[in-house]
Amino acid sequence: MAIYNLGSINLDHLYRVDHFVRPGETLASTDFQTLLGGKGANQSIALGRAGARVHHIGAISRNDDWVLNEMRASGVDTDRVAQLDGASGHAIIQLDRQAENAIILYPGANHRLTREQIESSLADAGPDDWLLMQHETNGLADAIELARQKGLSIAFNPAPMVAEAARPLIRDVDLLIVNEVEAMDLTGTRDIKAAESALTRDYPQLRILLTLGREGVVYIGPEGREQQLAFQVDAVDTTAAGDTFIGYCLAALAEGLPPLEAMASGGAAAALCVTRLGAAQSIPRRDEVDAFLQSHNPTR
């Protein structure tokens, strides 16, 4: 079993600030770093550190070999990452004192994938494998079509959310992973209960993972509705929390673990992640997550 992740690779330019910059304001930052990020790269690294066999499909600048080295060090196969002329995708991230973030994205090479690259990347995939996608690259419809032809299971995390673009894709996926804001945007509702009802009504074929921040995560599928409560920790940076949860949870589901155990693994990994600064570098190893699960209970 393998997981093929069609996903973004970004250079994250991280600025620590007292507050998010306001229109017309020039604000001095207290720290600056350039780090590996992007939802796709983060989720691949989380999958790799969780012990999954993960192949990343994506694109970067020819000048950014260090990115591939970091991904490989976490167990990610990067043979399907194209190196192109031009800039890699990158993000400008403001991180405030409350550990909240505000992000500006430039897609760069992430929007230059071709159907031929995706088809070649999935050449060895089969019915026991998964395709994972986010919403930071092009080529999603092609990837779904090609994955369906090969019998792969498809997981979709439509972030950043563009509801009009995401809706046509969702009918052809098996597992939808969204947070509460994304769920409301996708369904055009104003509260999470209405969003949950709309998702189960409009997409009855879906298994759904609905992440609720401090309230934990809800799974909806053939097994019914189950909720895993959040673990209580002191957060310093939430940048990669969602991506870390997705990587660990999907790795567990792909291994055949029941949803509640998979959500606990993802929740523990995310809890560890938010106690550390940065995106990819904050994602914990499998042994750290296992130790955390043995010593912590979710918030009641």
UniProtKB/TrEMBL annotation:
One annotated GO biological process: D-ribose catabolic process
Instruction: Relay the activity regulation note.
Output: Activated by a monovalent cation that binds near, but not in, the active site. The most likely occupant of the site in vivo is potassium. Ion binding induces a conformational change that may alter substrate affinity.
Q: Which top EC class is named for this enzyme in its record? A: transferase
Is Nucleus among the key words of this record? no
- Part of which pathway? Carbohydrate metabolism; D-ribose degradation; D-ribose 5-phosphate from beta-D-ribopyranose: step 2/2
| Keyword field | ATP-binding, Carbohydrate metabolism, Cytoplasm, Kinase, Magnesium, Metal-binding, Nucleotide-binding, Potassium, Transferase
Recorded protein name is Ribokinase
Organism, as annotated: Saccharospirillum salsuginis
